[in-house]
Structure formats: structure tokens, C-alpha cells
DNA sequence: CTGAAAGCGCTAACAG
DNA sequence: CTGTTAGCGCTTTCAG
């Protein structure tokens, strides 16, 4: 492992000069530069990021905190983050909390100990108090999930409006008994989507029936399946269901099929997110598209701006109703 | 940002002593330790990993190279890697190549420049020549994909045998026209799974029909769908299909459904991997389970062993045929 | 345009 | 048990 010292010695220059040719931008005599570059090649020299990072007190790493990598929603966001990060000379440190507070503490430690230059937090279950404290001293942005009161910048969508659009669609095609498969309402977007659901019902004079609202513990196929199992036992069975995630909708679809019922004739179904596999179910799932990749990409750009000390503005992206076969 | 210097000064000890209380294991007088720990709390001191890493010439980061994070197969492996990495004080640096050689070069650079202590390579399309060169100087392990000739340690399954089991199952339930949805045969597992497919056919005296073997470009739902579209146009339509990935099988299933055909009656279908989604299709997919999480976990453990300079042995894990509704 | 020297924050001999 | 010191590999003044 050649070091900058060895390159300097062999090229007959000082380490400062080698550093200069490494870091472009500074003026170096063409001949000197050529000589140094030649030696760099000969020695197969690669500058050590450890040295550089200590000196510059930066790590060029972005912490990405998600609940679970198994959820494809985050997968597509991470994809977007990655693209922007890399094109700006950063890399991603992926962190799953799995709703484990200890892990969360570990990750928050990583920004304090300089392992990461900033964090993109996408875990709705994170300890908000600690997050806010952290955000006062370090660059942090939120993505998808966010907190209204805080001054942590975020990129997200208008969940209330998106849910309203989804439910209105269901109503317009004739449904009145519309179930909602929601997740834990401690999560902001769950509350917002419920508000959108209620607004649509109210607007069309449909009474709210608490029996039709199911809250899942988590966001997994099984949770969706369980929700539908429950909903099918309600005396006046719903004719349509709105799930706040395609993952839940797909689980629900499975349960409907298992009961010998047909989508959309017996029950219409609408999901959320437009995950790639929502188009592979049979029937294909109608859903509310979220621009996940773009969201991730913008969140990364926003974070990098913050790291550079620039001001940033919150971003609310557009959603889109994608009509397919399940409604 | 307090440094070790400030802690030392305020506690009235030397930096060496502070370092000692930080790094346990060394003997420090109980009183001194208490005093130092008190100051550490007061100052909210967090040791800088940048300094520590430079000094120890390590980064405590593991490079994980995958083709695409969108493929749920890798997702579950990464989950396993993460668990083991974290419990050993490492973190993962996630890298998608997207079959982009430039990115690949960037990632390989990261081990050379000390940003990572080792790499778990899962990209079958990686430049093997470069990979082998790298493996001579740095700790590298392969996971799922591997290379027979090389001396890069790996953890994988017996793909030939797994494919043989899958196809034999199809034959035993009465099928003779069995299609194979394979991926690019430049990839080792694709060749191995084809060998297993052929072995099963031969064993039961079924002639090989090249028309029934489709090669996809990539591993995406669309590729599976396209494969089945093609297969349905063969004059003597197959009555069963073996796909080398659940993702491909799910795409194929979609196409079968689109054509008004029924699985398993018109066409039986078997996938590979046992992705969580494979149980949510209708009908649920019969598949060959791979222990993805364990694979990732073992690969991480293996890599950490290598980093510590220990010898490691290749690992071949068991697969399992999971009978569900699609056959 | 180039070199000498300081120092980022930490750990690990080596003495005492 | 504790302090002194050197140095990990790099960038960046400051002189020249």
C-alpha cells in the first residue's frame, strides 16, 4: 500500500505537491504534474480515505435509516438516494431499525462519531425526541415520513389528498361500503390518509363506520391478509377497500381470493405506492403512485445541500391515481 | 465537538488514559476511570471514528455489491449480512452496480482506498478478472454467485441439485412438456440449473426440446412475462414451467392469467428462492427455498473472519422444495 | 509554482 | 497504573 509519502519521494517532490495533483483545482507545473502522475500509476497509489477524511473531518457517507429493507417501498427510495449520493461523491450507509430502539441509538451514534456526514430518516417509529435533538446539531432530512412541528426539512407527498382521491374514485364507481386498511395511527401519514378517507365519505354523504377501519401492526403481506380476514367478518361486508400500501392490498387480495371471492366484482381494491409488483397480481392493482425514486433522489440532494450549509425548502411531490383492474 | 484532548485536560489525566477507559480491556484505576467517565458524560464526548479508523487503519465497513436493490432476493440476503455485521461492530456500505462497469470500478476503488475493510460480492455480472485481482490483496467473499476456479471463498447452494429436484417434482406429477425460464447462461447458476433440468429429463427419458428453454436478459417481472408469452407460442405448448427465480415465475404467472389459462391445470409453475411475495400470488407459487437470510449472515461472518486473517471454508447450504398451489 | 511543517483525533509502545 | 511520545495519511497554511 503506497502512501503519499512514497509517491513524493519517488517523484522527487514534496507530499504537498502530490496532494495538489491529487486534488486538481490547484496550480501545478505541467511537467511536475506529469511526473507525479507517472509515479502514481507505477506505484498503483490510491489515496487513503481514512487520512483524507480525518484531515477534512468528513466521511462522505450518508446514513439512511429505514424500518426494514424488506419493504419494497423503501427499496425504491434507497435506489433514488443512491443515485444522487454517488453522483455527488457520497455513499450510503444503510441502516434498518426493525423498530429496535437499541439499533436506533447505534445509528444516531454514527453521526455523532463522524462516521456519517448526515442522515436521511425514513423511520416513522423513530424516537422523535432524540431525532429533534440530533437535528439541532447535525444535518438531517426526512423522507416520506416527516414531522410538522419540527424544523427538519423533508420531502413527501400530500397523503390526505392522495387518500381522498383514492376513496373518491371508489365512490364514483358506485361503492358506499368502503373499508380502510390503515396502519398504526401514531404515524402521521396514517392519520392524514384517514382524514382523506373521511373527507371523501363526508363529501358524498356516506356515514363513517368504524367497523370498516382496520389498523395493522406492521406493513407486511400478512398484515394485509389478516385485515381482510377481519373485514370479511363484518356483518355488512364492504364492497370495496382502500389499503394505505400495496403490500397490504396484496395481502388483502390474497385473502379475498382464498375465500372464493372476486376482485373487483365482489370487492374492489385500491392500494398505495405503485410498487412494481402491484402490476403483477391478478387482477392488477389500482393504486396511488408515489414517486419513490424521485423522493429519494431529492432527499439526498437536500441533505447534501444541508451538509454544505445551504438553506433548503421542504418539498411536497405529486401523487397519481393509477387505474388498473382491481377497481 | 469535544475531543479526547479536552476530556483529558478537564479530567486532569493524559489522553492515553482516556483512550484506555474508552477501549476497556486495559487496566485503569477505578477512581481514575470514574473521573474520566464523568467528564465524558459532562462533555457529551463521542470518540471520533475518523481518528480511530486512521490510527487503526480500518473502517469497520463492509462493502456489499449487488446488481440491484430492487430484486427482493438480494434484499433478504442483505438483511442477513446486516445482522451479523452489526453484531460484530461493522456496518454495510450498500452498492448497486446496475450492471454499470463504471460503478463497479468505483466500488472496487473503495476497498483500495480503505473506505471498506472487505467486500461481499453478489453481482454475477461483475468483471471477474478484476475481482480475482482484487481478491489477491483484499478480503473478499462471494455469496450466492461464485466462481469455481478462483480461490475466493463463498457461500451458496447446490443449484444443479435444486433444479433437478424442482424438475423431478414436475415430472412426478405427470408433466412431460416442461419449459425452463432461465437467465443468461454466462452466469454459473444458470448453467448449473440448466444441468439439473437436463439431468431430470434424461433420467425419466424425456427428450430435451430447445424450444422450451427461454433465456431472459435480466431478472425482472417483465422478463418472466415475456418468457411465458414466447413459450405460449410454441406449437406444442408446455404443460409446466420451471423458472429460475420467483420473480420470473410471477411474471410468467401474470402472462398465463392474462391469456385466460389456469395454473396449475393448464400450466403448472415452479419458481425459485421462496421470496415472501411468492406466497401472495394466486395460486401460491411452488418454489425451491433458498436460505437467503442465513446465506447473508454466513457470508458476513466469513468475511469478518477473513478480515481478521483467519482461514475460511466454502459453505454450501441446503435448499428445500416448497409445495404450494401452482403445481 | 513548490516545500516545510503543523495538525486532524486517536492508539500503542515505552518508560516510569 | 499512568504519562510521554510518535505517528496513522492526508491537506493546508505560510514562506520562499
From TrEMBL, chains A, B:
Q: Indicate the segments forming the HTH cro/C1-type domain, all copies.
A: 3-50
PROSITE patterns xref list? HTH_CROC1 (PS50943), HTH_LACI_1 (PS00356), HTH_LACI_2 (PS50932)
Would I find Signal among this entry's keywords?
Answer: no
A GO molecular function annotation here is: DNA-binding transcription factor activity
Q: Known Gene3D superfamilies for this protein?
A: 3.40.50.2300, lambda repressor-like DNA-binding domains
Q: Which residues form the HTH lacI-type domain?
A: 2-56
Q: Which SMART domains match?
A: HTH_LACI
Alphabetically sorted, this entry's keywords are: DNA-binding, Transcription, Transcription regulation
Q: Which SUPFAM superfamilies match?
A: lambda repressor-like DNA-binding domains, Periplasmic binding protein-like I
Superkingdom of origin organism: Bacteria
Keyword Nucleotide-binding in annotation: no
- Protein name (record): LacI family DNA-binding transcriptional regulator
Amino acid at each position: 500500500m503506497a502512501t503519499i509519502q512514497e509517491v513524493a519521494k519517488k517523484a522527487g517532490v514534496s507530499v504537498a505537491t502530490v496532494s495538489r495533483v491529487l486534488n486538481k483545482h490547484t496550480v501545478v507545473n505541467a511537467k511536475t504534474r506529469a511526473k507525479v502522475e507517472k509515479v502514481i500509476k507505477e506505484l498503483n497509489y490510491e489515496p487513503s480515505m481514512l487520512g483524507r477524511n480525518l484531515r477534512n473531518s468528513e466521511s462522505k457517507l450518508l446514513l439512511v435509516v429505514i424500518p426494514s429493507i424488506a419493504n419494497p417501498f423503501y427499496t425504491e427510495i434507497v435506489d433514488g438516494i443512491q443515485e444522487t449520493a454517488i453522483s455527488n461523491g457520497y455513499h450510503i450507509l444503510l441502516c434498518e431499525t426493525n423498530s429496535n430502539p437499541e439499533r436506533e441509538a447505534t445509528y444516531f451514534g454514527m453521526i455523532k462519531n463522524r462516521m456519517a456526514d448526515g442522515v436521511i430518516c425514513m423511520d416513522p417509529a423513530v424516537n422523535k425526541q432524540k431525532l429533534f435533538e440530533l437535528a439541532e446539531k447535525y444535518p438531517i432530512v426526512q423522507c416520506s415520513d416527516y414531522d410538522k412541528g419540527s424544523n427538519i426539512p423533508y420531502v413527501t407527498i400530500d397523503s390526505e389528498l392522495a387518500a381522498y382521491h383514492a376513496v373518491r374514485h371508489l365512490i364514483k364507481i358506485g361503492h358506499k361500503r368502503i373499508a380502510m386498511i390503515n396502519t398504526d395511527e401514531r404515524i402521521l401519514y396514517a392519520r392524514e390518509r384517514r382524514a382523506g378517507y373521511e373527507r371523501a365519505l363526508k363529501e358524498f354523504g356516506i356515514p363513517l363506520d368504524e367497523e370498516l377501519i382496520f389498523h395493522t401492526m406492521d406493513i407486511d403481506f400478512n398484515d394485509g391478509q389478516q385485515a381482510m380476514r377481519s373485514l370479511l367478518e363484518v356483518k355488512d361486508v364492504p364492497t370495496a377497500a382502500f389499503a394505505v400500501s400495496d403490500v397490504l392490498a396484496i395481502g388483502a387480495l390474497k385473502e379475498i381470493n382464498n375465500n372464493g371471492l372476486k376482485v373487483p366484482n365482489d370487492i374492489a381494491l385500491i392500494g398505495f405506492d405503485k410498487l412494481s409488483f402491484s402490476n403483477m397480481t391478478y387482477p392488477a392493482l389500482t393504486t396511488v403512485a408515489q414517486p419513490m425514486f424521485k423522493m429519494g433522489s431529492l432527499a439526498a440532494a437536500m441533505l447534501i445541500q444541508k451538509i454544505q450549509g445551504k438553506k433548503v425548502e421542504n418539498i411536497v411531490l405529486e401523487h397519481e391515481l393509477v387505474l388498473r383492474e382491481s377497481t
